[in-house]
Amino acid sequence: MINFKGRHHQKEVILQCVRSYVAYSLSYRDLEELMQERGYAVDHCTVQRWVVHYAPRIEKAFRKNKKRTGLRWRLDETYIKIKGTWKYFYRAVDKQGQTIDFLLTAKRNTKAARRFLN
């Protein structure tokens, strides 16, 4: 678990800043302004230190708890009509039925298959 002891701000504020920076590509000054609107006085330099310190730790914790895909995958190909145009829809699922990847293409050829499998 990530240690937040000794920090001047609440854990939730730190996590919100780091998540917003990573997910939405906001600048540190934009995050400073957003936090001020929410009633938190946070300097942009502080946000930068949080991102440098916590982003790798959060990613490591996320990857550790992320569901693994199974060793066996099933491929499904179907022909569907979208806005009056027929398209090929490829989908790869694992043993539990979780979608691993998908591809929507106009043509059914070797190039499309390789693009999906690579």
**How far from one another are the termini?**
35 Å
Number of domains: 2
**Total count of helical runs of at least 4 residues:** 4
Across the major sheet, the strand order is 1-2-3
Strand segment tally: 3
Overall mean confidence score, pLDDT: 86
Oligomeric composition of the shown chains: single chain
Percent helix, as a range, is 40-55%
> Structural class of the helix and strand makeup?
alpha+beta
| Largest beta-sheet characterization | 3 strands, antiparallel
Question: What labels describe this entry?
Answer:
single chain; 118 residues; 3-stranded antiparallel beta sheet; 46% helix
Describe the structure.
Helix 1 packs across helix 3 and helix 2 packs across helix 3. The longest helix is centred in the middle third of the chain and has 22 residues, at 44-65. Strand 2 (85-94) and strand 3 (99-105) form a beta hairpin. The chain has two domains: 11-65; 73-117, no CATH class. It has helices at residues 11-24, 28-37, 44-65, 110-117, and strands spanning 73-82, 85-94, 99-105. Strands 1-2-3 form a three-stranded antiparallel β-sheet, with no helix packed on it. The chain is 46% helix and 23% strand. It has 118 residues and is α+β, with helices and mostly antiparallel strands.
